[in-house]
Amino acid sequence: DIVMTQPPLSSPVTLGQPASISCRSSQSLVHSDGNTYLNWVQQRPGQPPRLLIYKSSNRFSGVPDRFSGSGAGTDFTLKISRVEAEDVGVYYCMQATQFGYTFGQGTKLEIK
Amino acid sequence: EVYLVESGGGLVHPGGSLRLSCTASGFTFSDYEMNWVRQAPGKGLEWISYISASGRTTFYADSVMGRFTISRDNAKDSLFLQMNSLRAEDTAVYYCSREGVSAGGAPDYWGQGTLVTVSS
Q1: B36-85, pLDDT tens digit by residue?
Q2: With an 8 Å Cβ cutoff, is B60 touching chain A?
Q3: How many other C-beta atoms are found inside a 10 Å radius of the C-beta of residue A112?
């Protein structure tokens, strides 16, 4: 299986400031069809997961434009341009390039 | 609006069985691939099973292979997870999720989850 690695905690961030979360895969996530199936999901406390970004850099419908994804191959980043209080939660990267799908262990967004 | 509602969770003894259901509404269920994902208390997300839109293709995580069976009834807009030989480590909230056609197959909608507790 592909192993997804994330730091458990983000660097502490002040509300209104940018934040970034990294994710690394144990092998390239480029599928034979040319797409990179790397997704980012957010889980707020006590809530089910919510899709933010799909195929590395595509924002899902209804997701605020302060969220953006980037990366290729094995290294990926989720960025929040200006952190808001409602962004508190855990962020997971997930690969869907190869069965079985795998998630990173999650990164908790830490607010100063 | 898209809704996914899981049911069937509860307390079960080790070695026992449970069948989870996920009822879909707000979209044409038979057009979508579906997954089950679980989350042990205080832990991260773990994908456990996939089923194609027709139901003919399934995949499982190694941790549940041979014990869990995913299925669907497209006429009833329902997804199922039959769980046998349950172990303490299967204790988790179980979520069903839809693979979004317009989201590159990513899990675009999730249910609220149903809690399964395996304990004597």
Answers
A1: 999 999 999 999 999 999 999 999 999 999 999 999 999 999 999 999 99
A2: yes
A3: 9
User: Smallest CA–CA separation between A37 and chain B, in Å?
Assistant: 7
Among A51, A56, A94, A98, pick the best mutation site for testing chain B contact (most B Cβ within 10 A).
Answer: A51
- A66 to chain B, any CB pair closer than 8 A? The answer is no
Q: Which residue on chain A is closest to B95 by alpha carbon?
A: A48
Residue A104, pLDDT > 90, answer yes
- Computed over every residue of chain A, the mean pLDDT equals 96
Q: Nearest Cα to B46, choosing from A93, A47, A99, A103?
A: A103
Which residues in chain A are contacts of B97 at CB distance < 8 A?
A: 49
The rounded distance, in Å, linking the Cα atoms of B57 and B8 is 24
- pLDDT value at residue B104: 87
The count of other CB atoms within 10 Å of the CB of residue B40 is 13
Query: Least CB-CB distance to B44: which of A60, A96, A105?
Result: A105
pLDDT of residue A94: 97
Return the closest-CA partner of residue B79 out of B119, B48, B41: B48
User: pLDDT tens-digit profile of A37-95?
Assistant: 999 999 999 999 999 999 999 999 999 999 999 999 999 999 999 999 999 999 999 99
